[in-house]
Specification:
single chain, mainly alpha
Length: 394
């Protein structure tokens, strides 16, 4: 363990790095003029490569954190208190994911635009949490090795068969449901294959928890992560080519032709190794707080950049139109602003929630008072009408 609080600080730091990379990645990708997107430019190529690492790292770390918290409690199966918390968290992420795509103007006109039903990071992580919970419950009464094996199998199967299901449009499904499986309607992330990264993160958490008391856990974990990562990056394609030549199965050849999933998984393992190596220096309180408030940062960045609820985001006004001289300082300012706002919310979260609770209570009291007065008025009105009717009959 890293500290008396039983907290793995390198994981929080890693998640902070991933969310900051996501902020600048979304800002640059959404606002940079296509004229400057030159693959031959070394700076742009390096930026694009690291941007491709961000989502796999974020999904993997999310699976790691949730599962580590899930399995470290003594209770097993349905008695585990983290099950209820996890289900609530998963549903919360789904709800927030949809709310961020809600256009209030259309909503008040009784319309839900197609963009509302698109699936993104929060939807996928919410579903991933449910999947991990399901696997945990199904294997809780089995041998201990069944859980990590099941999680690793999910990753391997989703990644290996991606060339097969990538072209499926799931046209027989309602579009809102199909969006969870296919990008053909505009979804950015889908549960296949991205659940594979969270499942792999869950697998790492199980293994880390199993050996957490070992004196050389970090030495062994660093070397295993580096070796696995380098092998996946440089040798996974030759390995699948060999499997194709040996078996004749074209699926292996299809994997080689677009082997981004296994290569990115290798990148993730290398990033894990780097952060474990630097763990003793990654104890800055602000950095760790950023890693613990990624949801707030994500929500704030989505509202500012994409204009959730109003449609008045930076993307609407500067869509693919800015030069690097503006993009670079703009991305830095964007990261700082979103991070600062999230940390301020975290600092005053208790007070904010108290005010919301007080507002709800005040609103409830006003509603009940209005309901009481309206009821009294209707009773009085009814009495007057009945008296008039009786007089008229007389």
């Amino acid at each position: 363990m890293e500290s008396k609080t039983n907290r793995l600080h390198f994981i929080d730091a890693m998640r902070a790095w991933a969310i900051l990379m996501m902020l600048q990645g979304h800002f640059v990708d959404g606002l940079l003029d296509p004229v400057y997107r030159d693959p031959g430019n070394g700076f742009y190529s390096v930026w694009k490569y690291f941007r491709g690492i961000t989502a796999p790292v974020f999904f993997t770390v999310s699976g790691f954190i949730f599962t580590y918290l899930l399995i470290r409690v003594p209770q097993k199966g349905f008695e585990n208190p983290r099950i209820r918390k996890g289900i609530r968290r998963g549903l919360q992420l789904l709800l927030i994911g949809y709310l961020l795509r809600l256009n209030l103007s259309g909503f008040f006109q009784g319309k839900l635009y197609k963009a509302f039903f698109l699936v993104d990071v929060l939807h996928c992580i919410g579903i991933s949490i449910m999947v991990i919970i399901g696997v945990y419950l199904l294997t809780s009464a089995m041998k201990k090795w069944v859980l990590p094996l099941s999680l690793l199998s999910i990753t391997l199967l989703l990644f290996l068969f991606e060339p097969m299901y990538a072209s499926w449009t799931f046209s027989g499904f309602p579009e809102a449901l199909a969006n969870y499986f296919t990008r053909s309607n505009g979804s950015v992330f889908t549960i296949i294959p991205w659940v594979g990264y969270t499942a792999f993160g869950a697998f790492l958490a199980v293994m880390f928890r199993k050996y957490h008391t070992h004196s050389a856990i970090y030495v062994n974990a660093i070397w295993l992560s580096l070796i696995t990562g380098l092998c996946l990056v440089y040798y996974s394609s030759p390995f699948f080519s060999y499997l194709y030549e040996w078996s004749g199965f074209t699926l292996f050849l299809d994997v080689v032709s677009n082997n981004y999933l296994f290569i990115r998984l290798g990148n993730v393992m290398i990033v894990f190794a780097v952060f474990m190596i630097l763990r003793q220096w990654l104890v800055n309180s602000t950095l760790l707080r950023l890693g613990q408030n990624t949801l707030s940062i994500y929500v704030i960045h989505f509202i500012i950049l994409y204009g959730s609820f109003t449609g008045l985001g930076l993307y609407r006004f500067f869509d693919h139109s800015l030069a690097p001289v503006i993009i670079i300082p703009g991305a830095i300012l964007f990261m700082v602003s979103c991070s600062f706002a999230a940390l301020q919310y975290d600092k005053h979260e208790t007070w904010i929630k108290e005010q919301i609770t007080l507002t709800k209570q005040a609103g409830k009291e006003v509603f009940l008072r209005a309901y009481y007065l309206a009821s009294q008025f209707l009773i009085l009105l009814q009495d007057r009408v009945l008296r008039l009717l009786n007089v008229s009959k007389g």
